[in-house]
Amino acid sequence: MDGKITDFDDDAQQGTIVTRDGQCYTFSLAEWRGRGLPGPDVLVRFDVRDSHAVQVINLPEKQRRASGHVPATDHAHAASDAELAGEYEEGVGRRYSSWALAAIIVAILGLFFDVLAPLLGLVAAILAVLGLRHIRRQPQHYRGRGSAGRRLSWH
Predict the structure, then answer these.
(1) pTM for the complete prediction?
(2) CA–CA separation, 39 vs 95, rounded Å?
(3) How far apart are CA 49 and CA 32, in angstroms?
(4) What's the pLDDT score for residue 152?
(5) How many alpha carbons fall within 13 Å on the CB side of residue 48?
């Protein structure tokens, strides 16, 4: 059967499991076979013997797809809540900042339009600064720091 631990008393080493249909079963720590220690709101699978839950384990989770390997950076960063929850797209690694790419494109356009070159150079510098700012806020997600920096050094 499947259920959810509603409470667990550490001192008495006893807990209660409620199933979807509302039936309650008690279990002891000796019957716990799951990961870590039992606690409230843990989803479990168990067998019933003499109106008690036995062989209580964590509810098996769906297997996740492996994602691509991202090389380690020099600066370790703390995992965000979104990363821990797996809310990023699968298979998407570090990507270039759109601001940094726009800075490079505008700078290249400035080479072809002589009259607009100073204005395009200014726009490219502003886009490069925005790109660096964007990358610094989430360095684990973006590449292009060097590209934006090179763009700033052109002028």
Answers:
(1) 0.41
(2) 40
(3) 14
(4) 53
(5) 13
